[in-house]
What we know:
Number of domains: 1
CATH superfamily: Aldolase class I
Distance between the termini: 35 Å
Largest sheet: 10 strands, mixed
CATH architecture: Alpha-Beta Barrel
Order of helices and strands: EEHHEHHEHEHEHHEHEHEE
CATH class: Alpha Beta
Bound molecules: iron/sulfur cluster
Strand order of the largest sheet: 1-2-3-4-5-6-7-8-10-9
CATH topology: TIM Barrel
Amino acid sequence: xxxxxxxxxxxxxxxxxxxxxxxxxxxxxxxxxxxxxxxxxxxxxxxxxxxxxxxxxxxxxxxxxxxxxxxxxxxxxxxxxxxxxxxxxxxxxxxxxxxxxxxxxxxxxxxxxxxxxxxxxxxxxxxxxxxxxxxxxxxxxxxxxxxxxxxxxxxxxxxxxxxxxxxxxxxxxxxxxxxxxxxxxxxxxxxxxxxxxxxxxxxxxxxxxxxxxxxxxxxxxxxxxxxxxxxxxxxxxxxxxxxxxxxxxxxxxxxxxxxxxxxxxxxxxxxxxxxxxxxxxxxxxxxxxxxxxxxxxxxxxxxx
Length: 304
Ligand code: SF4
């Protein structure tokens, strides 16, 4: 099913996946970069989005992927990190191969794209379910990639050990009842999320909170969101609208997308309950606002 949606599975046991994103296509045609380019200097055509685990322990309303049938994670045979890296790089090159013959392609960008510099471990599934995530990220780092890891925060023990360039934890509700409605965790993960936020406060590397805002569902109680954010002491907070795409269209309506001004207004409300943060940037086309800590020790723009 995932293949028919454009996901490319790789490795012996096909639990890793990558997908060509819209921004890669635009960038290769000489167009603009995604908001990660604007916010952090990540060039879309040099970025691979992938997951080491197509499986997830949540069923978020806003998720673009179809929910896979229940599998017992204990029964999954996991490929080693070296095989996943080889698999994802080979798929990346295969995805690029169609662009060489097009006169719409920017040749310089295509040449750069053949040497990717960034891995976003954030496609679908929950990456912390992959038992060798620590080693996978270390291997990518050793190969000279910058690594972004996005997690739903259900595995605080894994977060204690990983060393990505930038770690994201998603906060999609300000309190437990709404969390269970929005994220639909298979286990009781609220306490794990709270622990993960506390773990993040002591992580090395750039710390980011991602909030997917669903109009009419979770754009409430900015004060409690700010309390949760404060547990993690993040460098960056991305407040982003839900986008009505993929399988989420079966769970939510177009009216659940917030407009950019609504996102900006909600970000301002959260900011009112945080000390030492400011609105740093925004990308209207992606309906996302970046809040940053004023005394962060990190340059927002990465040197890649
Ligand atoms: S945690 Fe991520 S992959 Fe899992 S259901 Fe939620 S949005 Fe989808």
